[in-house]
Each structure stands twice: as C-alpha cells, then as structure tokens.
Write a structure and sequence with these properties.
It is built from seven helices and eight strands, in the order E-E-H-H-H-E-H-H-E-H-E-H-E-E-E. It is α/β, with parallel strands linked by helices. The relative contact order is 0.22.
Length: 230
C-alpha cells in the first residue's frame, strides 16, 4: 500500500494571501519507518532528551515563533532544509504531489475542493500507472487534522461513488484519515512540503522547494505531480 501524507498551507479566508496549497508525498508502507527515524534525528537537535516533544512545523520554524524563538534563524532553517532532504534522498518510489491554487482564479469555487480533486486524482493515476506495470497497490491519503476535514471527507466519498471531473477514484482503500501532527513525523514532513511549496509560489522563495521539486511524480519526462492554477 502507498500512503499519501498531505497538509495545507495558506489560509482560505485571508485576503492578503493569494494562494492555497494542498501538498504532500506518497511513500510505500515500509518506507515510513525509515523516514520517521531520520526526522527524529533532526528533532533531537532541539531537545536531545525528548525529541518526541519537538514538532517539525514549517511556519513557526521559519519565523521563530513559540518554542522556536530561542533557536538561531540559520539553525532553524537548516533543520527545515535537512528534513526536506530526507524526502529528496529517499526511495525513488516516494513521490511528491502538490495542488497550488490562486484563490481568485477559481472563484466562486471552493479552493479546497479544487485542490483536493487534483491531489486525489493525481495520486490515483500514479497507482494506475503502477498497476499497468504489474505492481498493483492500494492507496490511502492521510491528512493533518484540519478545519477542512468535513469538506475533504465529503469530497472523497463522492469521488469514490459519484465520481469527479475525470472519472471515479478506484484505487483508494478508504476515505482519508486525519491525524494529529504531533503524533506523526510523516504528517510533519507533509507540513514542511506544503509550506515549502507555498513559499515558492506565494513568496517567490524557492530555497526549500528546490530541494524537493525533483521528486514531483513524473513519467516519461511528463510531470504529473503538480497542479498549478494561476
């Protein structure tokens, strides 16, 4: 089974923010343990006695908010980059998926609906390509607990039964799961992926996104893992 860990970045209701992002990465079920252990090593830099108490979270790490305030900016930013490199250097089957939506470009549609439809369908198509290569796998999307949970759950159910714009989702084992990010290093990495993607398209800052862009799902030279609505 492949698990797609995903999170959002950008606030729907903030007029000062132009983009909304849903992004994350898929990993084969046995890859999760290795990724989590590498992220634990990064967290231990900030609390060696209790690395589990450290949540790797893009926005506060970047800005130095809350418990991150006591750490030097360069040290915090290096930790973000190193965490993203864990994904960048992981098994080739681990793929990046991102939906980047300029809110004004999809109005009056809900940006969450547009972004999730693209994220889910592109992950499903990745699983279809694996099946066509004689590697049949099921998929599951795992989100951070979010204010958009009810919207996403409803959409996911509809995609599996009534269909979406391009067909019916056929390869998901279940509707998305929602976890507390404090309990999952993989959800924390999805947060960093979403934040890096958001900064690239909202702020024009490719510092972090450039470390993972090469892991966008692609086949035959065609990039499938990025949806960009500007």
């Amino acid at each position: 089974m492949y698990l797609l860990y995903a999170d959002e970045s950008g606030a729907i209701g903030d007029p000062a923010q132009q983009h909304f992002v849903l992004a994350g990465f898929c990993a084969f079920e046995r890859q999760g343990w290795w990724i989590s252990k590498e992220l634990d090593k990064i967290a231990s830099r900030f609390n060696p006695a209790d690395p589990g108490s450290v949540e790797l979270h893009g926005s506060p790490m970047f800005a130095g908010r809350g418990s991150w305030r006591k750490f030097d900016k360069a040290y915090r930013h290096k930790a973000i980059a190193d965490a993203l490199r864990v994904l960048g250097n992981s098994h080739v089957s681990n793929r990046l998926f991102a939906s980047v939506v300029r809110k004004s470009a999809v109005s009056p549609r809900d940006p969450v609906e547009v972004a999730f439809e693209q994220l889910a369908s592109r992950f499903d198509k990745y699983l279809i390509r694996l099946h066509n290569k004689k590697d049949t796998q099921r998929g599951l999307i795992v989100f951070d607990k979010t204010t958009y949970e009810s919207t996403i759950q409803t959409l996911a159910t509809d995609f599996r039964t009534k269909g979406y714009t391009w067909g019916i989702i056929r390869n998901f084992a279940e509707v998305p799961l929602f976890l507390d990010s404090k309990a999952s290093r993989l959800i924390q990495l999805a947060d960093l992926v979403a934040y890096a993607t958001y900064r690239n398209f909202e702020k024009g800052d490719s510092t972090f996104y450039s470390l993972i862009e090469h892991r966008l799902d692609a086949d035959g030279g065609v990039v499938h893992g990025l949806y960009l609505k500007q």
